[in-house]
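Bumping with the actual sequence this time:
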Amino acid sequence: MMDQDYMRFVERINLLTSIDLSLYKEAQMKRRLTALRDKKNYASFSGYYDALKGDQRLMDEFLERMTINVSEFFRNPERWDVVRHRILPELIAQKRKLKLWSAACAAGEEPYTLSCLLHNDSSKREYSILATDLDRAALKRAQEGIYDNNALKHVPEAIRSSCFSDTEKGTAIGAHLKKNIRFKQHNLLLDAFEDGFDLIVCRNVMIYFTEEAKEELFRKFSEALRPGGYLFVGSTEQIFYPGRFNLHPMEPFFYQKPIS
């Protein structure tokens, strides 16, 4: 009975929000949403759905729980060393203006990390960053750009001093680093992708999707890259047989779309 209740919930959420929960790994998603439903004192997913329809705050909490918004600046610093010392210099040497995408950007740590690196690069190359997430509440926090010290634990001191300032609310990202970032709500599993990107960063979100959904995303990410562009994925999201998606492994967790 509970399985039918959940599956009906999945169908109704899809109709209401265009979010297809069936493309997420069922055991993980069901466990997460059951905990939230029980916390709100609903005995069934049917009752929980009825409440979601009429309560935007409850809906926002649902969206925040089903997405993963745990991040930090320079998460896995050794990976960002590759971006800083190999990927960006190569891209900067090729183009006057770079186009980057932080997909599933959570509260903004990732796109701001990119902006910090480009701001501190001596070439001062022009760039634009698209930063997207499904969760509107996370995007709002990203646009505010206020963080606690735990989120900045891997930030090099030189970058911290040039990119952040201390405020009464917390540590704030500099306004000069916001101006080249465009935040946008976006459903990776449904919405169309822009194209022509030099670098796409999508980390630690695809592990929650089914294999079929991940393969479709890899294909779409490849199509969104310009020839020679890079895809940067999370530590548990290595692509097996990347050639199927017209991608070539360059470094662990970095894949390049061939130029020809």
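The tokens above came from a reply further down the thread. Strands lie at 97-103, 126-133, 146-147, 164-166, 171-173, 181-185, 197-202, 225-233, 248-251, 254-256.
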